[in-house]
Predict the 3D structure of the following.
Amino acid sequence: MQKHKFRLLVFFSAMTLCGIIITQVYWVRNAWQLKEEQLNNRLLAGLKTVVNQLFEMQNISKTYVFVCDTTCMMGNQKSIVLNQRVMDSLIREEFRQITSLGHLVYGIYDQSQKVLYASPEGISNTYILESPLKISLSCIHKSERLLLAVCFPNRDKLILSQLSIWLLLSVFFLLAMTFAFYKIIISFLKHKKLSEMKTDFVNNMTHEFKTPIAAISLASEMLIKPSILADKDRIIKYAGLIFDENQRLKNQVDQILQISVLDNEEYTLDISKMDAHETLEGIVETFRLVQHSDVGIQSALNAKSTIILADQHHFVNMLTNLLDNAVKYSLKKPEILISTQSMDNWLIISIQDNGIGIGRDKQLDIFKKFYRVPTGDLHNVKGFGLGLFYVKAMAEAQHGKILLKSELGKGSTFDLWFPLVK
């Protein structure tokens, strides 16, 4: 039900965003057409003004715009010579504001689509002949129908320059809305996934706590029976069980408290010089005692430089977490190799196992809080999904790092890097 609601929410949100984008594009298109129409009206009005001025000049000051050339005088042909200076001066003056922003050309042509004159900008006559901005010159030159046309090759650039601020703002806000929508969806999905992981964590924690609590309750109940009090061996057995389960509870609570401290960034590290090999040998020895012969653990401590700056308590916890994982995620008898090497100014501690391995698609997630790798046939793997999160956080807090090399079915190798003391 929740997934269905979420999908509907995303769908309607996406449709709303698309509607806003379409509306914005529609208004930008209308604004463009309006600007285009306004510019065309200005040019037509300017053309009419120019023709009126030419008519007045010809009637009042007798400054002829068109005169017959030599051919016209001899053969009575309709050839004309344009007074270019007068025409160019009037047009440039009338369209000064527009021509200052872009390239304006004009020309005169007759009914046969023959261009009789074109302004000397070197543009193709096609622009003049196809221009919708034209006006008749019949009031000035009555012998044949001539048309004066202007065109503005950079008209789109001019309109774009006039609308550039609004276009940029529109694009900016549309991109901002799209980005915000994307971030909201991603954030929602992350929180949804985190909520699911927390739910799994609580369920898992409840199960983990119930087991030792039930064992302690049962052992305590047995200890208060009179028949048990008379048997010293059974008292020791049940007391040992209570102690072990109590330690297990304590370790689980400590692990949760450690993560809580990490979240609040309230932890303090007791950084000091320590011999990594000496500490590793102690960890390996303790691990062998606890696991007995159920786990094969070998060490190859080959690093030449072993003195690092670290918090010994957290250093031990980090290595113990990695060793516990190597045991838990194995289908057969665990075989673990701890090795060291020094490289440049780093000590590299490698923990290699023969476990189930981790797929490439899961390797980026395993260091996230509460994340647990699906274990396939292993249904009894215990834990809270906090161990590797803790290891990574502590490694980085001590100016180190952790790297993973793993392949499904071929085990995993975790490399802990610690800076060496120079």
